[in-house]
Structures are given as C-alpha cells and as structure tokens.
Amino acid sequence: MSLHAMIQDPEISIEQIGNFLDALPPKYRLEQIYAIPTKLFATLYEKAALAMPVTLDFFVPHNRPPLQPVVHHGINTLPLFQNYRQFKKVFCRPNDGTPRIFGYNDNGFLLNRLLGPGYFVAYSTRQRFEWHERGAVVIDYYQVPEAAVAKGWPTVRPNDQGLQVLVYHETRDFMRRISRHVSIGGVWKRGDKIDVHFLLCREELPGV
C-alpha cells in the first residue's frame, strides 16, 4: 500500500504510518514526504492527534550540545509562493539551560532576501490545555530569540518588520509527531486556525 493510500484509509493508524516511514532509508523517507499531495496534509494532521506527543528533544535531540544546529527539511501547503514550497527549519538549543529551542526558516536565497529569517522560539504546550490539544510543541513567531543563536545564523529580526509580516507575524505552529524523524504542523494566525499545514523531516543524526 502506498503512503498516499495509508493516509486516506481510516483503518490505518498513525503508528502504522510512522512505522512505514521509519523503515525507509533517509533519502526515500524525504522523497515520500515531498510527494504527499497537499490535500492530504490536513488528514494527516488529524491522524497525528493520536500519535505519541512530540517533545523538544524530537527537534533537537538531547545529545546535541547548545547552539549546535539541527536541520529539518520541510514542505508546506501555503498558497503563496507555490513554486517555493520546500524549505528548512533549523533549530538549536540555547545555552542558558531553559526548556525551549530557538530556530529560523531557510527558504532559499530568493525568499530569504524577500521574507527574512522568520525566527521563532519553540516550547512545550503542556501547561496550556487548549494549546496541548493542537500539538505538544508550539513554534511561536510572537517570540524571537533574545539570547545567543548558533554561529553563522542570520541576524535576529522581529517578525513584525518588512515582508515577514505576510507569513510569520502573529503566527503559531502546533506540532504533532508522525514518526522518529517526521512531524506535522498546523498553523494558527492571530489565534485562529487557518488552512495551512507543513511537514518536517529531521536529518539523520548519529546516535539518534
């Protein structure tokens, strides 16, 4: 059975989808993610509500030292910039020991120049029941790092400046786990759910 068919089949669980993705070599796992039709992202997000809750360690594994980047390859359903749906979210743990992670969006040279880095702070939603139902980790664009970020990252900018407001301003992404490497996000703008989702696939890391 294809991944497309698995997502559409109400009898196929998110655990079965996760096991399928876990069994693939990294290259083919990413190809499968990129090949999922955008119309199925919302269905997959709903299925993932029954998955094991995602944690901050999923995005930056505990064996990575502070300020060491971890790359997640992504694809979104944004109607804007349809030819640039693939992107990266790059994460790191801050060096202050707080339970959160910093990150930004790498959309390629052209959109980076146009939209800026789209910085965010990610943290657990455990203390917010209404948020936790949406996803166990929130990527929060209302916040940007106020402490050191990884060497070589773009200059930190608030998301209410320039064309960043079109995508990142007043936005929160709520994340659900799919497999050991793959997660899915649903997007809330100004507190309301919008019809935008995205998939992330973490790069293979030693010891993870």
Q: How many H/I helices?
A: 7
Task: Please report the total strand number as a whole number.
Answer: 8
Helical amount = 10-25%
Contiguous uncertain segments of 5+ residues: none
How many structural domains are formed by the residues? 1
Strands of the largest sheet, in order across it?
1-2-3-4-5-6-7-8
Mean pLDDT: 93
Beta-strand residue fraction: 25-35%
Structural class based on helices, strands and sheet pairing: alpha+beta
Overall geometry comes to: globular
CA distance, first residue to last residue: 28 Å
**Largest sheet: number of strands, sense, barrel closure:** 8 strands, antiparallel, barrel
Secondary-structure element pattern, one letter each: HHHHHEEEHEHEEEE
Multimeric state: single chain
Radius of gyration: 16 Å
Describe, in plain words, how this protein is organized in 3D.
This protein is of the alpha+beta class and about 210 residues long. The protein has one domain (about 5-200). The mean pLDDT is about 95. It has helices at about 5-10, 15-20, 25-35, 40-45, 55-60, 110-115, 130, and strands at about 70-75, 85-90, 100-105, 120-125, 135-140, 170-175, 180-190, 190-200. It contains seven helices and eight strands, in the order αααααβββαβαββββ. Helices cover about 25% and strands about 25% of the residues. A hairpin with a 4-residue loop joins strand 6 (about 170-175) and strand 7. It has an eight-stranded antiparallel beta barrel with strand order 1-2-3-4-5-6-7-8.
Write the topology of this structure:
Layout: H1 3-8, H2 14-22, H3 26-35, H4 41-47, H5 56-59, E1 70-76, E2 86-92, E3 101-106, H6 109-115, E4 120-124, H7 129-132, E5 137-140, E6 171-177, E7 182-189, E8 192-202
Antiparallel strand pairs: 1-2, 1-8, 2-3, 3-4, 4-5, 5-6, 6-7, 7-8
